[in-house]
Amino acid sequence: KAFATQEDADKLADKLRRNGHEVRIESGETAGRMWHRVRLGEFNTWDAAVAAKQAFEKQESMIAYVVSL
Fold it and tell me: Which of 4, 40, 43, 65 has a 20 to 30 Å separation from 53 between CA atoms?
């Protein structure tokens, strides 16, 4: 999830950490605006990333996206 404020990103990241997830926040400018993205995990294969996404969505009741960087 991406947030316009660092504070909002920190709140979600803290919640997910309390639930046992390894989380990082990546900040960067897009289209002239600063965004703070809450990211989870790095995976060696697309299939592993999709499996982790499905497990995360089931556990957290939250939609997640798989991105390739």
Answer: 4
Q: What is the pLDDT of residues 53-69, one digit of tens each?
A: 999 999 999 999 999 87
Which residue matches tokens 């991105």?
A: 67
Sheet architecture: strand order including 23-30:
2-3, 33-40, 23-30
Class of residue 9 by CB neighbours under 10 A (exposed 0-12, middle 13-18, buried 19+): buried
pLDDT in tens, 33-60: 999 999 998 999 999 999 999 999 999 9
Would you call 2 helix, strand, or coil by DSSP? Answer: strand
Q: How far is CA 12 from the centre of its chain?
A: 9
Q: What share of the chain is helix, strand, coil (3-state, %, to 5)?
A: 40, 25, 35
The whole-angstrom separation of Cα 54 and Cα 33 is 30
